[in-house]
Amino acid sequence: MRFNRITCDPKRMNGQPCVRQFRLTVRRVVEAVATYPDRRDLLREFPELDEEDIREALAYAAASLDDKVIEVAMAG
After folding, report:
1. How does pLDDT run across 10-51, given as a tens digit for each residue?
2. How many Cα atoms occupy the beta-carbon half-sphere of 38 within 13 Å?
3. What is the pLDDT of residues 40-53, one digit of tens each?
4. Which of 11, 12, 27, 55 is the most exposed place for a label (fewest CB within 10 A)?
């Protein structure tokens, strides 16, 4: 998959993947999606982002993960 909106520059944000040369990392966008479940609130907080930026950041994060099983605590 090609990510046109994700950039990596060793001179910006320590080379972390960012959205469109902004000083906004993919990690921060993923955190913001979790913090602001209503996209309108997220877009008000980060007006430089648009829906495609968010979709691509999430897709990039998902593509960067391994498909290994991580054990979690059992409920109950």
Report:
1. 999 999 999 998 999 999 999 999 999 899 999 999 999 999
2. 4
3. 999 999 999 999 99
4. 11
Name the amino acid, one letter, at 67: D
Q: Single out the residue of 65, 67, 66, 48 nearest to residue 5, CA to CA.
A: 48
Interatomic CA distance for residues 70 and 21, integer angstroms: 32
> Mapped to the 3 state alphabet, what secondary structure does the chain carry?
CCCCCEECCCCCHHHCCEECCCCCEHHHHHHHHHHCCCHHHHHHHCCCCCHHHHHHHHHHHHHCCCCCCCCCCCCC
Domains annotated on the chain, with CATH: 6-63 (1.10.10.10)
